[in-house]
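#struct-help
A.M.: can someone run this one for me? Single chain, 498 residues.
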Amino acid sequence: IAEITKYKMSSPLSYQQFSAENSGCCQRAFCIPVPSLNVHNDTQPEMKSTEDFLASEMSKLSVQERSKALDDVHCVGEELKETPEMIEASLAEFDRVLRERNAAIYNLAASQSRLYVEDPNFRLRFLRANEHNVKQSVNQMIGFLSQKEKYFGRDKIARDITLDDLDEEDIALLLSGLFHIQDGTDRSGRVVVYVMIHMLARSTAKSIIRVTYFVFFNILSRMPSVQKKGFVQCDYDLSTPMQPQSLPSLDTSLKVIDFVTKVPVRRSAVHCCLKAVPGSLASKNIVLNNVLGRLQRSVRSRTRLHYGSDIELQYMLKSYGLNLETFPVDTNGFIRDDILNTWLHNYIADQGNDHATGNWNALSVDSVAASPTDPITVESATHNSPSHSNNAARRVDGLIEAGPNDVLFGRGRGIHQHPGNIRFREFLKDYQEEYNNALRYQRLNTPRELTGVLLEQGTRFLKPRETGGWKECDFSEVEKKVKQVFRTQKKDTKKNEM
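D.P.: on it. Structure tokens below:
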């Protein structure tokens, strides 16, 4: 077993050869130990909880499921096996379960175009994405239609979304390099999609989701190879010590992930390429943990974390069967403009869309960089960025005037009932249970990570000046405040339980 694991965790080709040469040994092995999820480099201390979480997800799988996940990650997985009889039976069961559900969103879509929602090819995308688990497929399709209504409008849920449905901000984001479909495939013949993480912080959640729909549903989910083999996703962090990159807010990240899980595509492997520098995703463990927690277990068990320089990361990916010749980032960490949007222009040419020669080419990467979109306004539990909110703190004669979105330090009913303070406590309530149940070292990290998230979003924490007015608190003061609220809310919870 140790030898099988050793070969399997090295190169995919070696494992194939070893399996062929030692078939008797493989047949005798009845289990495979759960391997480390980061086999090429040491775990970063701040990422230990994430590594532990992914390892625990692997341990929950059956031996067969675990072996299949390892095969997929290491580029030796098999494509989905189907027969005409299997497809026919799955489609019939799909229709039966759908009628039983009697979902309002589906009935609305059917009233607009029964031909669209009853198209076998449309339904087959969901079945293949869920490996013919009918109930999961039906649930995903209903969720997909609901998300489509939310982000494109009720009148578009039963028709294809085209480039004409994307607005100027959407098209600019599409051209920015957020997504890159690599020319060619990996060693197993799977499509590889790169997501440049820092691009997610340059647009609104709505625009990110609309562009994600276009790339993942219009392009990827239509490909027969993606339906049968799945695809490989590589999330790439371009941060450097000299040039840290901004990250999307936690609120935006969770909205995007909630949408992504409704799109009928199957990720056969996910590689998160991280940099151990301040401000990178590796330093925002709370964001990564929450994002991974929203993904399907089948995706979490196929997710691997990698750390290092650009050249180190790329050679790690090469050992997983990815092609470096058409890799979208060079070894110095610069995006390769010569191949950046080749896949997109090829798609437009194939579709014969007017955008290919019209307004489409008027939007370039340079124009996006010259006119960045406003930062995302964080909704619900989080706070608006002060520089983009009418309610933000204002400076008057060098002093800060507190606004309703600020968190104020102090005592008294007025401070406690301040709108910003109320929203701040509500925000932390979402993480209270996680804080209460965390191990000691994790409990120390959570307040620090949430402090970074809040400050990065633009939330201001103000304390009174001795001479009047307000002044901003530093990081350590905010972190101390977060810890205090967690402790107070924990005590209140215990009192209510007594």
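A.M.: thanks! The two ends are 51 Å apart (CA to CA).
D.P.: also worth noting: The chain has 25 helices and ten strands.
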